[in-house]
Amino acid sequence: MKKFAWPLLALIALVLAACSEQETDNSGEEESVTPVEVEKITQGDLSVDKQFYGRVTPESTAPVIPPTPGEVESLEVEKGEQVEEGDVIATIKSAEGMGNVDIEAPADGEVTSLEANEGGMVSNSEPFVTIVDLDNLLVEVTVTAEDLALFEDSDEAKVQFTSLDKELTATIEYAASVPDDTGLYPVELSFENEDNDIKPGMTAVVQLAEKVVKDTLLVPTAALVDDSGKSFIYIVKDDQAVEVPVEIVETQSDVTAIEADVAEGDTVVVKGQLTLTDGGQVSIKKEEQ
């Protein structure tokens, strides 16, 4: 009886080990699911913009020169104060026998310089007050002869102020026909400073369309994958990632025009695609509310 017990026990052990190994193999064959974020492919025009850097300057500056020299009897304004056209800003006792003379603001704006004190003397050859219009400002840029045509062919341009995270539309007022001493062509753009948060001296980024790609397929630039110089995207179909080769027509930082075997409305992976393979299982993350 004992002779048969040991072989039987060994056989049972082998069967159990085989079953355990098969279960391990089957568990390893389960395919992983990659969570991804997606967007829809769209169709439309892509504007390829060119950027130019410039500075903000006042559109108008009004220096105030007294009509007569004399002593400042009273000073009605302070530096930084807002005035309106016609406001009395000072009264001067004329040194030429004209009596007391009221000096009025010639324009609306902010008093940006004040070179006088009550009881002090002012002349009629130099300004003692400067008033700057901060409601209407200019952006001044200088461009090459090749880029000058972009401004000559346009009426408006987008202007960004990165320090304020603000963008607005400015009117192209002037494009020089002759270069300045640097060999570049001055260009001026005007805009309304409605919130009075833009100040002279700030850096501005002017954007103009250099080229427009018409009626093209558009994908988020983040969706593109590059491998050995070849570009492709992943489309989601039936919870699977489908690799689609693409030809890049034009690209911007946020959107790219492509040619590919896809259609408007297809779902493209924009996050998580770097770990995908063609045919891999995916789950789409829902947007947080």
UniProtKB/TrEMBL annotation:
Pfam families linked to this entry: BSH_RND (PF25917), YknX_C (PF25989)
Molecular function, one GO term: efflux transmembrane transporter activity
Keyword annotations from UniProtKB, A to Z: Signal
One GO CC term on file: efflux pump complex
Transmembrane segments: none
Coiled coil: none
Sequence ranges assigned to domain Multidrug resistance protein MdtA-like barrel-sandwich hybrid in this UniProt record: 63-132
Keyword Signal carried by entry: yes
Signal peptide: 1-17
Domain YknX-like C-terminal permuted SH3-like, first and last residues per copy: 218-283
Keyword Magnesium: no
Similarity comment: Belongs to the membrane fusion protein (MFP) (TC 8.A.1) family.
NCBIfam families per the UniProt record, alphabetical: RND_mfp
Protein name as catalogued: RND family efflux transporter, MFP subunit
Species, as recorded: Sediminibacillus halophilus
